[in-house]
Each structure stands twice: as C-alpha cells, then as structure tokens.
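Z., the sequence and structure:
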Amino acid sequence: MKRIVILGGGESGAGSAILAQAKGFDVFLSDSGVLQDKYKQELSGKNILFEEKGHTESLILSADEIIKSPGIPEEAPLIVAAKSKNIPIISEIEFAGRYTDAKKICITGSNGKTTTTSLIYHILKSAGLNVGLGGNIGQSFARQVAANNYDYYVLELSSFQLDNMYDFKADIAILLNITPDHLDRYDHDMQKYIDAKMRIVRNQTLADAFIYWGEDPIVTKEVVKLQPKATLYSFTEFKKEGVAGYSDNHKLYIRTPKSVFEMEQDLLALTGTHNLYNSLAAGITAKLLDITDEKLRLSLSDFKGVEHRLEKVASVKGIQFVNDSKATNVNSCWYALKSMKSKVVLILGGKDKGNDYTEIEELVMSKVHALVFLGVDNSKLHKFFDGKVTEIEDAGSMEEAVNKAYKLANDGDAVLLSPCCASFDLFKSYEDRGDQFKFWVRKL
C-alpha cells in the first residue's frame, strides 16, 4: 500500500489526510507545532495517525510521497532529507487535482486574489452552478474533493501552493499582477518569485484560458517569453487593441468570442482602479463559462466584498476607520492609499518580508499626515519614514495603535490599517490583526 506522509496539520494538511485515507493510502500526518483541537478530533475520529510538537524522521522518510504544507520552506531539513532520498514532494493542490474532473478556475497574483476569487465564486454560485471555493481561502481543496462532487472549483493559489504543482492544470488561469512579495522565501531573488507565479499556466492547452493584466510590465514580459499554449485574454484599464476587458466612457466592457458584455461602472459593487481589474478578470471568466449578461450584471453589483480588505469598520466623531489588514505587502498598501479620498493616519508594520517602501513614499507624503508603527521591530520603518512625515508614533499592541491613531486624526480623516507586512510578530494571522483592530475601534 502506498504510504503518504503529510507535513503540516492545518486546514491544508488535514484535508489532504482525509482525501488520502479516502483513496485507500497508508496515511501519516506530522506537525512541528501544536494541532488545533478540531483537527486532532477529526484525525482521531477517522483513525488517521498523526504526531505534533515535532517530527519523527524515520516515520516521515519512509514515505512514498510527501504532501507539504505551503508554509514549510524548501530548505527545511526534513524537505532536504526527503529530496536526497528522491521522495516526491507535492502540494495539496497537486494531490487533490488528481481526483476530480471538475473545471478548475485558478487565481493568483501578488494582490487582489482573495477579492477576485470570492467575486468569481459569488458569480458562479449566484448563477446556480455547482461550485466549490478553496485553495488559500475557505475549506481546503482536498477536503472538498473527498467530501463533495462539485462541477467547478474556484481556487485562490499562492506562490507557495504553486511551487509544488507539477501535473495539475487550470482550465481557466487568472494572473492579476506580480509585485515584490515573500522575497524572504525566494532567496531575495525576484525572478524565482515570478517563476513560481507563472506556474499557473503550467500544462494548459489551447482549449484552456489564461486571463491576465495586460499592463503589468512583469506579466506581459513573461507572456512573451513563455508563450503560454492557452488562449489568452488580457484586461486593461482603458480600451486597447485585442484586449478582452477594459473600461471606456464610464462603462466596463468584456469581449469574448461569443459575446460583448457592457455595464455602467457606477453600478459595480467594488470601487477603485484595482477593483476594476478584479471585476474585469471575474467578468471575462463568467462570460467564458456562459453566464448570462443579466446574472453577471447582478452579481457584479451586489457583491459584498472581502473581510479585512478595505473594510469600512466605523465612523467615530467624523473619523472613518478602515481595516485593510490583508495588505501584507507594500503594493497592497499602495492600492489602499490610492483609493483614499481624505487625509490619512496610517498604521503600518509587522514582520517585514524584505519590503521596499519607496513604492508608497509619494502617496504617504501627499496623503498621510501621521504614521503609527505597529510591530516588534520598527527600526526599518523609522529609517525610511523619519523626517518625511511630521508625526510618527510607535505602538506595541493593537489597542495602543488604535488609540494613538484616533488622537492623531482630525475630523474628516481616515485611520487606515494597511500594514505592508506579515502579522506573525504580534498576531496569529492577518485575520486576527484585523479582528483586533475592529474590536478596539468599536471600543472608542
């Protein structure tokens, strides 16, 4: 019997274990940390063997195949040891993809992927399709393949999930943009990160679609270089020759081989230029899947948005508090600042991933009158921003950050949490960071 070992016991690992057992494999799960109670109960209930708080090397290196959690880096000692023994190492996405014939719509990009993934899912579900949502969002893909029989999957894929993907193929692949992110995981080599993102087109054929932002300098260069075999559909802000999605004269247009769709831009639920791109990518996808104009129009206008992404929390004494905790890189923060109509008090900081803050320097200087640095180590932020913004404060907790930002803000300002950084220095996750922000704002 083939032995499958799963490294990492979060949602991705637990889902992989359940699917591997359902397919009749000998399964063992190992995590160096502590498993959440819900996963322990689930694994025990299904008699799946697991260990936590450490790895037993002999049990792991006896695997025929290893499914690696996206969070584990390639240079982890166990991964290096497994590679030296030629044990195949794959991702949960690669594994689950073997066991479903459903159409797979896969979304990646440095920014906007959660919003676009959620929007596409909303459109397909509202149109009555039998569709699952997974990958980097919601329940794991593997868990759903084990338990459900969907006709479509909408999957948000991070570069880490794409890294260990080999035979998996997206029927529709969407690449929103590529800007520096996670460079700490890619030896501070931008090309390695780009190569990981471009794996989204792997194994595609002419019958498949590749949808991408036609004005992204990196993506367009890679498209010329790689010559993807898929049928290409690009989107741009304004009308250009051969573009499938664009805006013109306050309207959004989507041109696919079978139809031309148009809609007043004012009716879109999502506002801002970056959300226009997200709506265009989702719209092209919908028309390729033959969603009617009427249903698409309705879904694009009634979508509720994503938690922790430019989420309006409350207005306190004329000050608008905005939770953009999902902005874990500099480019996300750039989009957030770009969409702000008022003066801003910006809360920045966390675990730096090799950030370059020059991208937001101009916007900070023109829109931000006070900064609050929220992190264990704010030295890099001070080095860059000191002297550029008159008021700068440090905070060691979210309560302190919210109170300081509130005191610094004037009537009509926005207090924006858009940290540019990962959350792991002070918080469990970006969700935890955003939830704490909302909690303390509501206490004001």
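The longest strand covers residues 231-238. The mean pLDDT is 94.

Let me know what you think.
H.
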